[in-house]
From TrEMBL:
<dbReference type="GO" id="GO:0019478">
    <property type="term" value="P:D-amino acid catabolic process"/>
</dbReference>
<keyword id="KW-0560">Oxidoreductase</keyword>
<dbReference type="InterPro" id="IPR023209">
    <property type="entry name" value="DAO"/>
</dbReference>
<feature type="binding site">
    <location>
        <position position="313"/>
    </location>
    <ligand>
        <name>D-serine</name>
    </ligand>
</feature>
<dbReference type="InterPro" id="IPR006076">
    <property type="entry name" value="FAD-dep_OxRdtase"/>
</dbReference>
<keyword id="KW-0285">Flavoprotein</keyword>
<dbReference type="InterPro" id="IPR006181">
    <property type="entry name" value="D-amino_acid_oxidase_CS"/>
</dbReference>
<dbReference type="GO" id="GO:0071949">
    <property type="term" value="F:FAD binding"/>
</dbReference>
<feature type="binding site">
    <location>
        <position position="340"/>
    </location>
    <ligand>
        <name>D-dopa</name>
    </ligand>
</feature>
<dbReference type="Pfam" id="PF01266">
    <property type="entry name" value="DAO"/>
</dbReference>
<protein>
    <recommendedName>
        <fullName>FAD dependent oxidoreductase domain-containing protein</fullName>
    </recommendedName>
</protein>
<dbReference type="GO" id="GO:0005737">
    <property type="term" value="C:cytoplasm"/>
</dbReference>
<keyword id="KW-0274">FAD</keyword>
<feature type="domain" description="FAD dependent oxidoreductase">
    <location>
        <begin position="10"/>
        <end position="353"/>
    </location>
</feature>
<comment type="similarity">
    <text>Belongs to the DAMOX/DASOX family.</text>
</comment>
<dbReference type="GO" id="GO:0003884">
    <property type="term" value="F:D-amino-acid oxidase activity"/>
</dbReference>
<feature type="binding site">
    <location>
        <position position="187"/>
    </location>
    <ligand>
        <name>FAD</name>
    </ligand>
</feature>
Length: 358
């Protein structure tokens, strides 16, 4: 008689987009081998600034300047969202939108423009890519491209991921795990929260604790990248990003069709951890975005501001850490440090997590 394979109980620490997507991928693509429990301080619906997933724009716009591993993650997510938008009837929060990217002549940040007359690597991976003719480009712009892309109404998407996890038998419990006594003690605490005899009950642990891995596993490469956005009423015609503007800012216009709003932004402030709103930067963000979404301006030439948001991206020197490690008696897969790309990386990262466990 054939024996049933043992079900492997996986603890996921963290319920941001990385923890949730990893949990879902284990359940959906793990061939029935995994049982998943999530323990997290912040959950879908929460709005703490340190919970990065609550504050993303979010859009698909690869940050990669060549075909790196992270670029591959972006491509996997693009393809997955394309199917999701086509096939899913329920509210997912993901919307197909028209994108436009502009690069300035002399870029200042790492967001390098494609070399003159050459298209970015992702031009052959996205749908409907076309260059914007020089005559149509805004002033002081070297290169522009249009393409089909996606935006995410983040709280709706996080709730959708959790619904799917629960429908597949996964569970989620809210708790802040201790960080001072080491990782194994945090996992022991998670086993208490879930009413299990001990941490050895878990076959493996996914550490998707974002920037808080600084404390949880002592990763000093992690650093905060503060991002401030403004939500305005109305749905912009295009999802626009202008790269190579002043340091510390990029112009982004991210429509959320299902919510009837657009996210305007966004500041990029490395090593700033404050989640307080900086009111001085609001006019600067709005004025920079105005020429790119005139359709959102009222008769007074101003946006109708709904709210202002601040989130802390989990930056990491050396890039995201997606890695297997044995910590005392625990098999751990780290999945954190995804900076400003967690949504667009999420499907590729979750599949790598699954692969590392297999
Ligand atoms: C303004 C802004 C704009 C952005 N725009 C985009 C975009 O357009 N596209 C894109 O792809 N990305 C974007 N991002 C980046 C994206 O939001 C992040 O990369 C992503 O949300 C990180 O997800 P995460 O799951 O790693 O971390 P988080 O969302 O921070 O989740 C961490 C989880 O770990 C839990 N946790 C941590 N420590 C403990 C503990 N000790 N005990 C229990 N639980 C714990 C937390 O409670 C939380 O549930 C943006 C971010 C910001 C702030």
């Amino acid at each position: 008689m054939a024996t049933q394979p043992e079900t492997r109980h996986i603890l996921v620490i963290g319920a941001g987009v990385i923890g949730l997507q990893s949990a879902l991928t284990l359940l959906e693509e793990g061939q029935g081998r995994y049982k998943v429990s999530i323990v997290a301080e912040y959950m879908p619906g929460d709005d703490a600034g340190i919970y990065a997933s609550a504050w993303a724009g979010a859009q698909w716009r690869s940050h990669e300047t060549s075909f790196t591993e992270a670029a591959e993650w972006d491509v996997q997510t693009y393809r997955y969202w394309e199917q999701l938008v086509k096939n899913e009837d329920s509210v997912t929060g993901v919307a197909a939108v028209k994108g436009q990217n502009y690069w300035r002549a002399s870029p200042i940040s790492s967001s390098t423009p494609p070399a003159e007359h050459s298209d970015p690597w992702w031009s052959t991976y996205v749908r409907s890519y076309e260059r914007i003719s020089p005559a149509e480009l805004p002033p002081d712009t070297a290169f522009g491209a249009r393409f089909d892309t996606f935006t995410v109404e983040v709280q709706a998407y996080l709730a959708y991921l959790l619904r799917r996890i629960e429908a597949l038998g996964g569970q989620a419990a809210r708790a802040r795990l201790p960080t001072k006594q080491g990782f194994a003690a945090a996992v022991e605490a998670a086993s208490d929260v879930l009413d299990l005899p001990s941490r050895t009950h878990f076959w493996a642990v996914i550490n998707a604790s974002g920037i808080q891995s600084r404390d949880l596993v002592g990763d000093t490469n992690l650093y905060p990248i503060r991002g401030q956005t403004v939500q305005v009423r109305g749905v912009a015609n295009y999802c626009i990003t202008r790269l190579g503007v002043e340091e510390g800012q990029r112009i982004a216009v991210m429509p959320r069709p299902t919510a009837g709003i657009t996210i305007i932004g966004v500041t990029v402030e490395p090593d700033v951890a404050s989640t307080e709103i900086n009111h001085d930067r609001v006019p600067e963000l709005l004025n920079a975005a105005k020429p790119y979404c005139l359709e959102l301006l009222g008769s007074d030439g101003e946006f109708d501001v709904v709210s202002i948001g601040v989130g802390i991206r989990p930056g990491r020197r050396g890039g995201a850490r997606i890695e297997l490690e044995q910590i005392s008696d625990l098999k751990v897969v780290h999945a954190y440090g995804v900076a400003g790309a967690g949504y667009q990386n999420s499907i590729g990262i979750a599949r790598k997590v699954l692969k590392l466990l297999s």
